[in-house]
Amino acid sequence: MHARAGIIATSFIGLLAIGALAGCSGDANAAGANSTKTELVFATPPGTDDPDEQAIMADLATMVGDASGRTITNLQPADYLGVVEAVRNGSVDVAVLSQFSAALAYKTESVDPLLVWPASTEPASFCLARKDSGIQSAADVKGKQVAFIDPGSTTGYFMPKSLLAKAGLTDGTDYKSTFAGSHDSAVLALANGNVDVACTARQLYPTFVQKGVIKEDEVTIIAKSDPIPVGISIVVRKDLDNEAREALKAKLPALMAGNEKVAKTFGITGEPTADPEFSTYAPLVDVAESIGVDLQDLR
Hints:
Blueprint: E1 14-16, H1 18-23, H2 30-34, E2 39-43, H3 51-68, E3 71-77, H4 80-88, E4 94-97, H5 99-107, E5 112-116, E6 125-130, E7 145-148, H6 154-166, E8 176-179, H7 183-191, E9 197-201, H8 205-210, E10 219-224, E11 233-236, H9 242-258, H10 260-266, E12 273-274, H11 282-290
Parallel strand pairs: 1-3, 2-3, 2-4, 7-8, 7-9
Antiparallel strand pairs: 4-11, 5-11, 5-12, 6-9, 6-10
Helix pairs in contact: 3-9, 4-5
């Protein structure tokens, strides 16, 4: 999601792990089968525990309700691929997905993409190191320990791993990596000396400095990734009724663009494409393949 390859937290009514959601899949569209035309279940990926970000996500949930004219129940699966699974098995009706999660979900026919926004021109990710570490560039990461965020994270995995690959570094051979689970956890691991490098969303970096998660005079931005070639997506379960689909397409873009904090958090620029073809996501598949990841394998 722009920075939102993961910016969300515990303001949501339910916090469900991917295993719990997957367990519902035998339940023939658990939430979907039981929902009515007065209710929708909305989900977003995991992110930081920052109260300001929680408030932004609550605003987005309200917008989904206002656009659809329905009562919203909020869920936050435990990881990025958990959101895909929740929509696929019918536990969730509508979700906002990070770019690679959306590409994966589309490729595996797990969801129907409803809206996708244009790409940003800003770097997607920053990789950080402590100033006293001697690490000053991507090339210096060789032999080091790197904290990524989550296997389904755009700004916390795919884009920074791609920038390290462009520097000639292969994960597991030239450096070791771990998944921290959230952006703030990765940055804290760096601050506490548990890893040598942490890669996070560009848009989150100022927040981490402002909130004191890291001290700007103690860290160095050693590398910046390319921009993400596609913007964020709103997706729906494949059997969601047409009334809700059309209402969301007609009303949600203006609501999101009209809220400065939501627009900034999600990198909302320009007009979204409705009902996008898979070709829209093809550049993401190319990035995944460049680092040796087949999106189909993440299913």
